[in-house]
Amino acid sequence: MMLATIDNPSNAVKWTMAEMINQPDILAKACEELDRVIGKNRLVQESDLSKLNYVKACLKESFRIHPVSPFTLPHISSKNIVMGGYFIPKGSHVVLSRPGLGRNPRIWDEPLRFKPERHIVDEVSNVSLVDHDLRILSFSTGRQGCPTLELGSTTTTMLLARLIQGFSWKQPLDTSTIDLAESKHDLSLAKPLIAHAVPRTPFHFISNEMQLYIHMFTSLMEGLVFGEADSTTIVTGNNHDFLVYPKIRGDSSTKNSPS
């Protein structure tokens, strides 16, 4: 259960960041929402998450296209039943294909396109990371749904929101686009995610709590490049032994913090 609470959110945030970096207009919309709802004088808090519909829509789109696993856990049919024209005998082991649902062209228009707007019904309806109609499977639903749904949803949204609020993201200087190819062994990114980050939040707001979120994300990445407005860059070690924080203007030293 705890592994699912960690792996599912981390996979969603990693894919979301990769997709958004490749589509700067989507990333800009998420930044605009955060600036409008939260402002620039404080960090996003859990109480703000219900107002961040576009950020949640971006995550839900990642759950749709890039699920953490190809199938759900198996369930056993307790009786003979016909579903969708298919007869399922009692005692059958039943699994659902996550990509088969999320990428189904009969349900989704342009199923392989990352389009968060498809999950926003109107300006007032709350975007939930769970789809009770089972068009996608994020944290599952019903009696057999994920028991850590609330924790997983909150953790996922907070991680993405603070990463977007704290930094401006783009491809590394020597890369034109993030490679979105899937691994041959699972549904994760085939290549490690490497990104260039420029702080957009005042340094005194990058508290220990924010540093924890940075550490959570860098643990998912091969390397993270930090930069200032003057394009000075610092690169983390690929083995994640330490975090590197941006140099404060006028300070020639680099601050390393053990993980």
From TrEMBL:
Source organism superkingdom: Eukaryota
Full protein name: Tryptophan N-monooxygenase
Cofactor: heme
Keywords carried by this UniProt record: Heme, Iron, Metal-binding, Oxidoreductase
Subcellular location: Membrane
Predominant location category: membrane
Chain sites annotated for binding heme: 146
One GO process term, biological-process aspect: terpenoid biosynthetic process
Pfam families (UniProt xref): p450
Alphabetical list of InterPro entries matching this protein: CYP450_AA/FA_Hydroxylases, Cyt_P450, Cyt_P450_E_grp-I, Cyt_P450_sf
GO cellular component term, pick one: membrane
Molecular-function GO terms, alphabetical: heme binding; iron ion binding; oxidoreductase activity, acting on paired donors, with incorporation or reduction of molecular oxygen, reduced flavin or flavoprotein as one donor, and incorporation of one atom of oxygen
Membrane topology: Single-pass membrane protein
